[in-house]
Amino acid sequence: MKVCKFGGTSMATAASVTNVKNIILSDPDRKFVVVSAPGKRFSGDTKVTDLLYAAYAEQQKNGDVIRLLDEIKSRFVTLATEMKVEIDWDSEFKTIYDGIARSATDDYAASRGEYLSAVLMAKVLDFDFVDAAELIKFRKDGSFDAMLTNDLVEKRLKHAEKGVVVPGFYGRLPDRTIKTFSRGGSDFTGAIIARGVAADIYENWTDVDGFMVTDPRIVSDPQLIDVLSYEELRELSYMGASVLHPDSVFPVQAGGIPINIRNTFAPEKPGTLILKDVSGYDRPLVTGIAGRKGNTNITVAKAMMNDEVGFCRKVLSVIERYGLSVEHVPTGIDTMSIVISDMRAKHVDGEKLLNDIRGMVNPDSIEVSESMSLIAVVGHGMANTPGTAAKIFTALWKAGVNIRLIDQGSSELNIIIGVEDDDYNAAIAAIYDAFFKA
After folding, report:
1. Higher-confidence residue: 387 or 174?
2. How much is the pTM?
3. Binding of substrate: at which residues (predicted)?
């Protein structure tokens, strides 16, 4: 039994939807389908989800969403016409118009792209449509209710006699309002369905051949990763490898279900297999290299800091009050650095934050850098192979890249290197060359 999730590029045009149809109908084991909202049809186009966010914003500002909803409707009418299926779009969009007008948040509006995509795909395949709101449940505080959701999926879908299409990205709160996952959450929905029906494999169909060792925008034609572990996937996804939502690992990991990353536009290729146990496979020392720009590094210096009980806790309590995420906390005898990933995104007043730290611990100095990139070198083989770190640092030295931070995870699955944003591309390329071109 297979659960298949198809991303936005797979649902963008009639040609791509036809590919999806052919893939599903070519294998009777592909019984459960999760779809994203249609993505960009061409360079410069707008994703349907972005149009829906804009529609909600227009409703809040001017009380009128007709122009944007008409643009979205036109796309679905075109898809349905070219796929030769009949759907009452007037009725669907009247419901959406009324729903956006009543909605207190933009979650309902954002979710409608997936909803409409699933309505279309169910008609194309002659499968049953099951609304994600009936299956995916959130608690009152907005947290995902995994146990209740798994029970509902199992009861409703596991013994379904006919194929089923489920919209990705959203579920429902106890008060029956719609709640979405973070962007890319359709991956998570697919994994949830896979666990609930006890699938043999979760196929995640996208627009690439699989998981690449590193970003092809930086390294030309990087190697494809044949096999990954769940842990390696989490590390690489969290650090910027955008093929799969990082949280989508958890449901399938709990059920021991393999993930297969496949290309909708090249279905003959095997893609990347993600497994609980990768022992026994012939794998390279380094599995993947990923990173993120734009981190903020705050270095707090104070003589005899190590003798001051609670020093680190006090600094971190200030960071916590601002609702910021701490990535790494390397320390020395008299210094403490805090690497923060979301200070820019949350538009935090940096000077106010630093003043609060000064008031809390009275440091000798504070230095701030808002242009640090974090790069993760990931692989199960690194822990037991002498010289791995030396190889990384030598490659960066030869490329003229100055290292600002070094941190190795407790699992020894990754080595994190901090460099200036301006050196990010050069650092990625140098590390890749050292391990895959040497």
Report:
1. 174
2. 0.88
3. 49, 114
